[in-house]
Amino acid sequence: MSRRTQEHERHTHSAEVHQAYERVVAAAEVDSRYVEVSGRQVHLLEKGTGPPLVLLHGTAGTAGFMLPLLNELHGVRVLAPDRPGNGLSDPIDLARRRYRETTVAWLDRLLDTLELETTALAGHSGGAMWALWYALAHPERVTRLVLIGPPAVPKTRLALPIRLAATFGVGELLPRLVPPSPKSTLRFAHHAAREKETLAEYPDQIALMVAEGRDPTTAAVGRAELRAVTSPFGLLWPSGIPGRSRVRPDELHRVVVPTLMVWGERDPLGDASVARTVTELIPGARLVVLPTGHGPWLGQPARTAETIGEFLR
């Protein structure tokens, strides 16, 4: 990476984020590099050889957060970008009214930059929504689709902490009332994802999440993403996700890409019956329910990777 790029990135995100990210990546055998998409720097992690798999992390996360899964995937070339404004990537304008169109266009340009005419596409949570939207818009470029806990689909419900963070005024106030710390991060992981015990096994990941919570760029992007798909008055909307933001059943019927749904049975978004309802709407889709919360690869990295690997082969 050039000195110019280093200086540019240092000004985009805090030094604390960079240092925490470097510690996470240092423990893994992955390549860390930058590419330019529409004049903005995108940081990505890459590992393995074989057919490509683009892996998209969730809202307020990083590609580094997916490393426990990345490390267990074999026989594929995994490319995991930090989505705009997260991790070490530059932010872009995520305007609420054009959020879906913006994400599809960004991902299309990323694949062009990576010279991937076609690829398997996987995503977690908010990243799963990006993957699903892209597969609906450009099925000709997606060979396989893996959805891990997509939130904005029929019957799901957001946990209270996420609805709080999405509420105008409250979201900006929360970091002041509850400053990011390892303790508050684990508490959030419990209420929002049912992953407190599993996340506690990854202290470097916790440190990165704390650093991101303190970083103004990342915090603003996280709020923008949440508000793009949730009600602006999250506390007043029972599920947190209005109908206009969800992928409709008729859209799910139009998914033509072979699809795997991976769901944690303790996911606060909904139980296994919710996952079955969504999966049955996608023609030929397969569902695997694991004994986890919202992040199956944290407590079950090998099993999650094996499930995905079998589907991709």
Automatic annotation (TrEMBL):
Pfam families, per database record: Abhydrolase_1
GO BP field: acylglycerol catabolic process
InterPro entries assigned to the protein according to its UniProt record, in alphabetical order: AB_hydrolase_1, AB_hydrolase_fold, AB_hydrolase_sf, Epox_hydrolase-like
Listed GO CC annotations: membrane
Domain AB hydrolase-1: 51-294
Gene Ontology MF terms: monoacylglycerol lipase activity
SUPFAM superfamilies according to UniProt: alpha/beta-Hydrolases
Highest taxon, organism lineage: Bacteria
PANTHER family associated with the record: MONOACYLGLYCEROL LIPASE, MONOACYLGLYCEROL LIPASE ABHD6
Protein name: Pimeloyl-ACP methyl ester carboxylesterase
